[in-house]
Amino acid sequence: MRKRQLGPCVTFFPQPTTIVTSLNSAGQVNLMTASWAGIVSKTPPTMAISLNKGRQTYANILASKEFVVNMVPASLAVEADYCGIRSGRNEDKLTTAGLNLEPAQELQVPLLAESPLNLECRLSQEIEIGDYRLLLGEILQVHAVESAFAEEDQIDTRSFDPLVYLGGIREYWDLGQRRGLAYTDGKRLISREEG
Ligand SMILES: Cc1cc2nc3c(=O)[nH]c(=O)nc-3n(C[C@H](O)[C@H](O)[C@H](O)COP(=O)(O)O)c2cc1C
Questions:
Q1: Does this model's pTM top 0.90?
Q2: How many beta carbons lie within 10 A of that of residue 154, not counting itself?
Q3: Pocket probe mutation, ligand 1, options 31, 35, 134, max atoms within 8 Å of Cβ
Q4: Are 114 and 97 in contact (CB under 8 A)?
Q5: Which atom of ligand 1 is closest in space to residue 88's alpha carbon?
Q6: What's the pLDDT tens digit per position in 33-51?
Q7: φ, ψ for residue 191 (rounded to 5)?
């Protein structure tokens, strides 16, 4: 495979598109789009988000020690993009985006109602990376859309329909087709080697 060197940059994909909800000291909710987000530990269940230290969301989380990571469905690409190009310091993004909230179970910070998967997180650690702050949050509760569980033994991913972000080339995609089963398909190579 011939390769082109891009130099030290942040081109990497796919990434999730999430909207992080947080509360300011006056109790106002802010929405911020974050794609540098992911699960980083199972024990304890931990979510990491990386925020520029200038974000209103960073100030909110630092003060309240709480945040919610909301999966963005593909149908909300425009709203998510808007929440990623304007700061809550200057405007009420919730109202402009026409989105709704619902109460969390463990936190004061609310969930984004239109999101099919919400993770309630309590700030557990902060790591400085230049202008960015890697925030680790212990996952206290996960809310998953009920319609995904219509079939007894399977979660139907179409109910989530997550918006995928292609970092570096700045595009949104949807999930596409299932191409395999994790922790299963790779076993074909093991038996081939042993057989
Ligand atoms: C698709 C997308 C992903 C983004 N991901 C991040 C991210 O992971 N971390 C970050 O600090 N900013 C990220 N941003 C930029 C912030 O969302 C943006 O600066 C926002 O205005 C900050 O809002 P706030 O000041 O209300 O917190 C992203 C923007 C877009 C459009």
A1: yes
A2: 9
A3: 35
A4: no
A5: 26
A6: 999 999 999 999 999 999 9
A7: -65, -35
- Model confidence at 157, pLDDT cuts 50, 70, 90, reads confident
- Per-domain residue ranges of the chain: 12-194
The candidate with the shortest Cα–Cα distance to 132, out of 65, 56, 62, 49, is 49
**Span 90-121, pLDDT tens digits:** 899 999 999 999 999 999 999 999 999 999 99
Main-chain dihedrals φ then ψ at residue 78, nearest 5 degrees: -65, -45
CATH code matching the domain that covers 12-194, chosen among 3.40.50.300, 2.30.110.10, 3.30.70.260, 1.10.340.30: 2.30.110.10
Which residue, 136, 109, 133, is CA-closest to 124? 136
Where do we find the tokens 């299963």? Answer: 184
Output the CA 195–ligand 1 centroid distance in Å.
50
Query: Which one-letter DSSP state was computed for residue 194?
Result: H
Place of tokens 């009920």: 146
In the chain, the amino acid numbered 151 is: E
Q: Are strands 132-144 and 45-52 parallel, antiparallel or unpaired?
A: antiparallel
56 close to ligand 1 (CB < 6 Angstrom): yes
In this prediction, residue 151 has a pLDDT band, given cuts at 50, 70 and 90, of confident
Distance between CA atoms of residues 138 and 50, nearest Å: 15
